[in-house]
Design brief:
Blueprint lengths: L2 E5 L4 H10 L4 E5 L3 H4 L5 E4 L16 E5 L3 H6 L4 E5 L7 E7 L2 E6 L3 E2 L5 E2 L2 E6 L7 H13 L6
Parallel strand pairs: 1-2, 1-3, 3-4, 4-5
Antiparallel strand pairs: 6-7, 7-10, 8-9
Length: 153
């Protein structure tokens, strides 16, 4: 079973992922890079609220999903592959529109999932609750689902 690490300050993202995928993957959480250095996960999901960059260079996941606005983090985590998410157009995963109760999520470039499958550039229109989570948290969740070969709907 693939190990999935979730680096988050509040832990809400880990709860959402575990509730949706807990039987298929082995999740472990942490709020500091040291929590992931001893047992590097196949996928490291870095939530937008992750803090504490000291020691990030010791993490060696196969794939890292990280906030695109954190240049310092991107240069420190030593992943074989990295996927960025955020509201900027340079991110791999971003929003192309936000209207009412739905959001259009755009995959700006092809990505390779944890299983080795390719996901082509495309957009998905998904339900979105503005009260439930920030756009960045939503993108992080969508990115984790994509990388774990899970349906988005």
């Amino acid at each position: 079973m693939e190990q999935v690490g979730v680096w988050s300050g509040r832990g809400r993202l880990a709860e959402r992922l575990t509730a949706r995928l807990g039987r298929q993957f082995s999740f472990f959480t942490g709020d500091h890079p040291a929590d992931f250095a001893q047992r590097p996960p196949a996928l490291l999901v870095i939530a937008p609220d992750a803090t504490g960059l000291a020691g990030a260079g010791l993490i060696r996941p196969r794939v890292a999903l990280l906030p695109g606005d954190s240049v310092a983090l991107a240069s420190r985590v030593r992943a074989a592959s990295a996927v960025s998410y955020g509201l900027g157009r340079r991110n791999t995963l971003t929003l192309s529109s936000l209207e009412g109760g739905s959001v259009a999520v755009a995959l700006q470039r092809e990505l390779v999932t944890l299983s080795g499958a390719g996901v082509e550039r495309q957009e998905w229109v998904l339900p979105y609750d503005r009260e439930g989570q920030s756009p960045e948290e939503f993108l992080c969740l969508v990115g984790a689902l994509l990388l774990l070969d899970q349906p988005l709907g």
